[in-house]
Write the structure tokens for this entry.
Amino acid sequence: MPAKNYDKNFKIEVIRRVKEQGQKVPDLAKELGIHENTIYKWMGQFNKDKENAFPGSGNLKPEDEELRRLRRENATMKEEIEILKKAAAYFAKNQK
């Protein structure tokens, strides 16, 4: 059975019902047809980073996007350095 995808608003509403309305996770999980551990995982993600919790499929948190960009930039610079090293070696060899 494929995993179900729930949007950010749904997850936040579930967390709100637990925190603000005092609903018990097992009862809410049974009502919604979601495993209890799923709700606990959502609560952990939300507590860890409220602003950037649940970025959505294919979306990254801002710091993860920055890290991805910097890694790409680093790889490009390493390639450029290797090209320059080879060019320097070529010209040094041909000056003799």
